[in-house]
Specification:
Helices cover 46% and strands 24% of the residues. The protein is of the alpha+beta class. Strand 1 (83-90) and strand 2 form a beta hairpin. Helix 1 (2-39) packs antiparallel against helix 2 (47-58).
């Protein structure tokens, strides 16, 4: 029995590790695909893609997976046609959400997205129903270190509109047109870049109670588990 219990524990730990690795791979694939759609499939001219590939390799993602993600985002997979579709809606507590998808089956994707919203007490809206609450920005998140002053100086000299200081990270925002130049400048400081992409940022965040926040987070989790979903943006503080 002791041996059986030990094996059960080993299997449980392995399952948790596999699930964790799966989530890391999923995030890496989405970062790569977002970078390709924003700046093209060539990492030599697309700094965001180059960094996304480096992060994917850091979590031991196979080269074939990386290449497949690039090909999918650039439409180079033979016999498959992908379509970018964005959905907008409200989650629990009136939190606005925008869901960006890349799919080869529109009916499958919209059904899954609608089901997720309905399940958590939200509702899909029409195009434009919540997008006015968001601005498109370049966002770079870096780990705080003794290079903070150098990073902030480089950022401000290369197109940064705002630098948000948190306990563990700096979040640098820019206009989309300045993003690549800014990213290269920040990268040149040698700081640890945790995330970098062009995405949507809420222009006015709303506060909700803890119970509502948990429901919104669950909705986001359900959406992000869908392989067709690329990004989920929301205005919850």
């Amino acid at each position: 029995m002791a041996g059986h219990n030990k094996w059960s524990k080993v299997k449980h730990i392995k399952a948790k590790e596999d699930a964790k690795k799966g989530k890391l791979f999923t995030k890496a694939v989405r970062d790569i695909m977002t970078a390709v759609r924003d700046g093209g499939p060539n990492p030599d001219t697309n700094a965001a893609l180059r960094l996304a590939i480096e992060r994917a390799k850091a979590v031991s993602m196979p080269s074939d997976n990386i290449k497949r993600a690039i090909d999918k985002a650039s439409g180079n997979l033979p016999g498959v046609k992908y379509e970018e579709i964005t959905y907008e809606g409200y989650g629990p507590g009136g939190v606005a959400l925008i869901v960006e998808t890349l799919t080869d089956n529109k009916n499958r994707t919209v059904a899954a997205v609608r089901h997720a919203f309905n399940k958590m007490g939200g509702s899909l809206g029409t195009s434009g129903s919540v997008s006015w609450m968001f601005d498109k920005k370049g966002v770079i998140t870096v780990e705080r270190s003794d290079k903070d002053d150098e990073v902030m100086e480089a950022a401000l000299e290369n197109g940064a509109n705002d630098i948000l200081e948190f306990e563990e990270v700096l979040v640098i925002e820019s206009d989309p047109a300045d993003f690549n130049t800014l990213l290269q400048a920040v990268e040149s400081t040698g700081t640890n870049i945790l995330e970098s992409n062009v995405g949507l940022v809420a222009n006015n965040e709303i506060e909700v109670d803890d119970a509502t926040a948990e429901k919104v987070e669950k909705l986001i989790e359900i959406l992000e588990e869908n392989d067709d979903v690329q990004n989920v943006y929301y205005n919850m503080k």
